[in-house]
Amino acid sequence: MQPVPSGSTPPIGRDLLLAAARDALRPDRGLLLTGPAGIGKSAVLDALAAEAAAAGVLVLRSAPVPEESVLPYAALGDLLSCAPPDLLAQHPPLLLRTAPGTAQDRLALHTAAVRLLRTLVQDFPVLLVLDGLQDLDPPSAAVLSFLTRRAASLAVTVAAAERTGSGESALRNRLCPPTALELAVPPLSEDAVEELILRQGAATPIRELRRIQQLSAGNPFYARELALAVHNRPQPGGRWAEEETPVPRRLRNLLLAPTRALPPQSRSALLLAACSPQPTLGLLHAAGVADPVAALAEAERLGLVSVAAHGRVRLRHPLLGAALQAEALLRERIAVHTALAAATVEPIARARHLALARPREDAEVAAALAAAADVARHRGEADTAYELTALAAEHTPAADPRQRTAHLLAAAAHAADAGLHEDARRCAAGVLTDSADPAQRVRARMILLETVGQALDEAGGLIQGGLTDAGDDPALLAPLYFWSAVRELLGGRTGTAAAEAQRAATLAFAAEDRATRVEALGLVATVQGLRGNPMAADAALELALHLAAAEQSASLLRRLALAQLDADQVPQARRRVTALLDPGAGAEGVEDTLATLVALVRIQTRAGECRQALATAERCTALVADAGQPSPLAAYAAALAEAAGGSTARAAELAQHAVDGCAAASDRLFQVRALGVLGQALLLTGRAEGAARAGEALQRARELSEAMELADPDTVRRLADLVEALLQSGETAEASTVLAESRRLTGGWPGSWGAGAVAALDRAEGLVLAALGQTEEAIAALRVSASRLQDLPLPLELARTLIAWGAVERRARHRAAARAVLAEAETVCRTLRAEPLLLRIEQERERLEPGDRAGAADDLTASEHRVAELVAGGATNREVAAALFVSIKTVEGTLSRVYRKLGVRSRTALTRAVAAPGRAVLTTPH
Question: Which residues form a coiled coil (predicted)?
Fold first, then answer.
């Protein structure tokens, strides 16, 4: 009937607004959208009109522009152009060859418009879309006002939009039905702005993206224009600091149109306010404005600024300030920043003003910028510290290249801490290009190592180059060998990692470098713990803590907390890591903060703090998103939290992402851990298919762990899960082999170290014994596991053991005992809000229902159920083996157990048993 409006794609971030608007789209209501220019009113109307047109509604639409407001009946003509031409021919007064001259003529026109709408609604529902009430020509406005007041009786729906100032109500709402719902279109969220820019297709660096989010303040039109300007801007051309985000001419003209008529003193005061991060009347006065109140009066009347009672000056929109600065001449900006530098006491703001007031090499300015950077870093503002030190490098005179390089090196370090890896790499590369000083070159290489994230295995050239630069200087060699040890550890070479870390500690001792020695000893402790040598780990940690004294680093305290976690000292580990995240604990960089958050998720999941773990995992995700550096570690943390208190499907998806990311970065250590979470998540589904996939993931983890010579509690817990997965797949012999292998790993552990992991093996042993038909021995082993865990702060492990115990009791037909044990597990899990385990408990309870009792079908394990289903469906043993990814021998053994438990002797009898009433339990997933 008419073209679908051009913006038919649903606008980003407007789901709630669209839902509210749809409710108002009926003849007895109506809709009026309000908001400033560019906020997205037209996009919402376009989406509503497109939906209406798709539903068979006749859409009559007008979208006038300011230039058309002087053209009589221009808007009415747009509306009529959407109506069927044959109907228009029946209403001559609406052809508007001449404007109505008398009141009678105007009445005839209005009456004819009513008749036209009555005729239209006989054939179609009609939606009248008026996009831009503020620009309607007066004659059209008069007709539309007449019509919209009668919309309900005409059975016509009205949807309109009017441009208003921020927070203002509509002025022309008389052009809408009296009952119309007025909705202010809100700014987009930062996430929606990011999605909008990504959909636009222009690659935008993360720092520029954040700046666009800040300047646009949720206005989609502003965001799109700024992103396009950034995309089209020439490269900075060798500058270490980024250029300001450009404000295109079209936006400047739009925003600055109201300022053109202001007197010079008002424009000067506005520019001063725009150039200050926190303008006040007092600051403007100190900067030379004799009477700031009078100077801003006209701008305040126009709504360009607001002045609070305490004197704080706020520009109407963040982009207005950027537009004022972009429009000003260089000499004007220099004069303004000179005045503000003299009037400002705060060191960071003063340093910025000095730099902008003297856009040339200047040693005094460079020193002020470097000092301000120290202040920013102390406050934890690493990104600001980077910008200031990069500016300090630019302002350093060419006659002092060493100082310039020192500033550049500091800028690289701050950028790395802020997660601005591209900036850090650019600055560090500049140092390697310009400096011949070995210490500076080694430090630059170490910063480059910090920016490669988990992909250290591919960064051997950086370390080798650093060793060449360092010569025989132990002070330079020590940190390089520390990085070499980290590289070896992530690459899965724990033996070499231990040797390199010890070498780093020895060199640091020779160089009297306490900080590096402490870090190296902490790494020695971590590696020894992973290799199952807790006594050696404790000795290294004790020495590191003694050396660090009151200056303990975040990484050392984090290593200590994770060592406590291995020893099942969960509350102590939680307190130590939580303290590291306290704002007063000291400024950490993005990588350090991420490592701390990941450690906290590991601790919280062990402690059964499911909700808290999910919240911490969200912080991990937000941190890497803000830094623009996607990290498999954040995915690993999120998977771990989901497996404890969220969705097993989501946990498996995130864990697979972490596995793939770690594999791509050659980070074997976290690849193994991510495989463990993947296996656990799949195992917790309780389904045969999940068990088969869990077995594959955990077998891969087992292989990697053996190659890495891992023997820590985490490794043993993964092996315990592998035993369970193998049993669910019918691989009893292999499960027994893995269990024996695991026991050998724990044999050398001292005292109660890793008691929780040993309890997990007791649970696995109980399940193996149950699969071998040794029910009483199985229950005894599970009782031992539960007893161990009752004394440990590991409630999720206890719940898993109770669920396994309940399942064994059920298969042994000890129904009352099964119910009691499962009830205890449920109490634990409900307190913890451990949703995946609650689902497992529900699955077990379903199998306890009396209707499931027939034929001993509830004796079948998950793998036995699946084999029985496939065989009953006509599959051969070979086909079953292929479907379940197991051997034919395993299928034969499983089928023999199924025959025995169901009391049948042939495939035909099995088929009848499955089809018989009461046998539907065979299709219930385990």
Answer: none
